[in-house]
Amino acid sequence: MGARFEPFTSTAPAMRLSFVLRPISAAAVVALAAACGGSQARPAAQAPAPAAAAPAMTAQPSGAMLPAGVTAQMVADGDSLFNAPKSCNGCHGKGGTNGRNGPDLTLGKYEHIDGSYASIVHIVTEGIPKDSIKHAEHRFPMRPRGGHNYDDSQVRNLAAYVWSLGHGH
Asked: Dihedral through CA 142, CA 144, CA 146, CA 151, nearest 10?
């Protein structure tokens, strides 16, 4: 009457272990590839705006599409800066949501820019003067570089993280 399945044979535990470890191994390889995707070192004197104005996208090991020149490491570094105490999250909220003095950055709706990576780099670099703020409930201007001494590389990392918030990554 056909083959009989015997779940407790001497080979069954090894097969079960292989069945469990295979997805874990695959996940480890993906995580390692993402971690090793690496950031590209940039000289400090380089302007913060990206060179290419076109909205070219590059695939990352995680499968996410990021703007040209932006890496997963930049997004991770920007996350650390953005969510540090007394940083961007003071106005925009932890993770860019529910800010008390800045718009929710996760909605993908932009009040002062077009939402491109280059425009985010620009707005982080230059800030927004009080008289240009479009919502009365946002009482304070956005200071250039968020009021911090972020270098150009940090500005690009912050912009990469903010871009990822508004583009569903």
From this structure: 170
Residues whose CB falls within 8 Å of the CB of residue 24, separated by 6 or more in sequence, listed in order = none
What is the residue whose two structure tokens read 């990021």? Answer: 66
Phi, psi values for residue 131, rounded to 5°: -70, -5
Return the bridge partners of 67, or none: 57
Q: What's the pLDDT tens digit per position in 15-26?
A: 333 333 333 333
163, with CB counted inside 10 A (0-12, 13-18, 19+), is buried
And the tokens for 146? Answer: 């968020």
* CATH superfamily, region 57-166: Cytochrome c-like domain (1.10.760.10)
Measure the CA dihedral 18/24/30/35, to 10°: -130
pTM: predicted TM-score of the whole model, two decimal places: 0.64
What CA–CA distance (Å, rounded) separates 100 from 79?
A: 19
Q: Residue 168: helix, strand or coil by DSSP? A: coil
Confidence of residue 78 (pLDDT cuts 50, 70, 90): very high
Token pair 């940083």 in the structure block, residue: 87
Contact by Cβ (8 Å): 106, 117: no
Can you give the residue ranges of every domain in the chain?
Answer: 8-37, 57-166
